[in-house]
């Protein structure tokens, strides 16, 4: 799978990338790797609503999704970001229910909801216990037909979207590149050139009348598809759909459509772009590409996988591994409803120039044009795409989403299934043909992104918040009728009743300990041909040597970079050609290597995993390469207020303890780690009697134990005793710290304090108390800060229970000027939680949210493996999985309040604010005269004082 792009990951929630999400691929896949088709039922109501249903009796849940054929390209002129803003408004009131009811109907019963806006569509989805289906169908029909928009909710959500823009675009080092500069540079006339998230100026220009007109114009049954997947009765579903959606009238007005056609490029172009807090320059190259429905789309998807999927991909191998000119590489076949883009790019490695990166990148593109790809490389790319398709279909939500993409982008649900065969049929000649047709040297646009300090004096300012460029987009007609109003309580139609509960059937894990002490846990959890193998060493970052933070994480990361005579390239080739992926890293208490692979290929893949954990090479050149990559990633993260806040909190709360450093290392500590340090850590802690192997997915216990014995049975445990972990006893005095990061678009505000160990008898009251405070959209922090005041895109808290007392932290990002206000709101909610027990209904709702999220995580092989591995790591009996729900729901309001009183005392918490201090420091100093101000350029995360002596 493609690695998560640290440069633009912040944009992921605004709109899901449609590139590979449709349904997978594979060429001549190995035995057992076939992707089963999604069996769906389809019908169309008289008003034009298309209805799709996918029955799955193996889950206790149901996913309800509504996909509207309107997206950011349909934003009215001068209103960029409007479709996305409107997405937020759809969670407000209707004629029969007040704002935030959707969260009562989903989170409060153990479900979840969300939505996303892309260029071509807006989709809304809920996953809930199956007995809630009727209620959610009623609610979706309500907001399709009778949305209520008032000035207060409109103003609040517009402020929330501005905070989202600041967080994802203005505070992220590469946010401007991906959200603003890339579309602006790539299109001349098509509305795709405008930023989907909009601009501050355009958001400010939007009016309540615009919202009403937009809803009436685009949110209608003949412009939507309803998809239901999960556990239901088909006849009952049809009846409910007819009852709630059938009466919605089809408007007489046609739906306006974008007819603009992007002209061909007449030659290559260069677009120079700049931004604040850009630690490493980046380059992105775009070419015009066909629509997602084009016959050439499958070949372009395969080409994209060849370029950047996995460590064996061409861009990673050449630019990151071999030449070391890039810290990260990326590509995307961004194929949309209308002709889109092919994108390739890279972030420069430290000390490398944009010219070097650009030349290396274009050389790899030229290779695709000049010569056919090798057969093995083609097969590897296809098998990776097959694996991705299978992972998507593990859940009801994933099956529905695969159909949704096919409907939205290709107007044909069948394409979610037959496209697999089209991808399987792609040949090396096809890949070369589309490379020549769509990636010509004279058709490229090169976007070069650098820090503001590199901007020539005559260059224009960055388009951070200005109005969107003019485009030929359809204008909105005024609404025809009067606005919908929220009815008085006694006149509202109540939600339908819930049905009888559908009991979840949890996997039953089996375990065996090999003679060498290796604990093996196997749980069959899926009929899909997928297996997750997770190997966990019960020692992590807490064992880092003094002054060498990041040693455990570096050692874990290097495991698959050479082992037992296999090079990093050979390991990547071997795993990825089997349709698999391998990832590794350390947590505070352990180190994990996770292998996801097609089930039929596990006997070939598991021995490679065994070599990786047992016989890593730790080659000096690979160590230096990984060190440089980690330093480059840190350079980026240390320009992000949220990341700095996380690092500072760990150092201040746990100063002088094994948890009192940055888990992944600091710029100083990473340079001090030697190969002998890594070897010593591996020799000491990587041993079978300090490890657990978990196998989940399409595998029986007998198969799992046999494979584990074959791969690990001859691994002898050392005679030397295992070093005992050093206890963690936080005693640091709380501090108030401001880290000044000039020019950043937002401030990160956090409260951090010592929490509890996982073995603490107060664990369940603790997670319930945290749920009430900051666990989910309906939590108190998010309600007060986002919903009521629009001061943040999201506010929350977390309780990280570790082997020893871990971290409690509440975090919010907000515009710099609002940091003092947000801090006081956070402190107020902590005090309120400790003062009085929450109402029983509030506690019950948060308990349902906790158990629902837990259950959804167990639906995938990897999620189940994570859960079982964490139990083994923290010495929790595996049977805890069966009683987790019961223990959560048994927590009383008094128990949750007692935990808050004992543990969540704001007087014990460090206050950390990271942002442009000139915009909030005077207010904070008036309240906290002893606060410490640390310039970001002088921040020393290796020092408990946080500044160099």
Q: CATH homologous superfamily of the largest domain - what is it? A: Metalloenzyme, LuxS/M16 peptidase-like
Distance between the termini: 44 Å
Number of helices: 31
Low-confidence region ranges: 3-32
Mean pLDDT: 93
Taken together, the total number of domains comes to 3
Total strand count, please? 25
In which range does the helix fraction lie?
25-40%
Query: What can be said about the biggest beta sheet?
Result: 6 strands, mixed
Beta-strand content estimate:
15-25%
- Helix/strand-derived category reads alpha+beta
CATH class of the largest domain: Alpha Beta
The strands making up the biggest β-sheet line up spatially as 1-2-6-3-5-4
User: How is the CATH topology of the largest domain named?
Assistant: Cytochrome Bc1 Complex, Chain A, domain 1
Overall shape: it is globular
Gross CATH architecture of the largest domain = 2-Layer Sandwich
Provide the fold topology.
Layout: E1 41-44, E2 50-55, E3 61-68, H1 82-89, H2 101-105, E4 112-117, E5 122-129, H3 133-145, H4 151-170, H5 175-186, H6 200-205, H7 208-218, E6 224-230, H8 234-245, E7 269-275, E8 282-288, H9 297-308, H10 314-322, E9 326-334, E10 341-348, H11 354-370, H12 375-392, H13 396-410, H14 415-424, H15 428-438, E11 445-451, E12 510-513, E13 519-524, E14 530-537, H16 551-558, E15 562-563, E16 566-567, H17 568-577, E17 581-586, E18 591-598, H18 602-614, H19 620-637, H20 641-653, H21 667-672, H22 675-685, E19 691-697, H23 701-712, E20 736-740, E21 747-754, H24 763-774, H25 780-787, E22 795-800, E23 807-814, H26 819-835, H27 840-857, H28 861-873, H29 880-889, H30 893-903, E24 910-915, H31 921-927, E25 932-935
Parallel strand pairs: 2-6, 7-11, 13-19, 20-24, 20-25
Antiparallel strand pairs: 1-2, 3-5, 3-6, 4-5, 8-10, 8-11, 9-10, 12-13, 14-18, 14-19, 15-16, 17-18, 21-23, 21-24, 22-23
Helix pairs in contact: 1-4, 3-8, 9-12, 9-15, 10-11, 11-15, 16-22, 18-23, 24-27, 24-30, 25-26, 26-30, 27-29
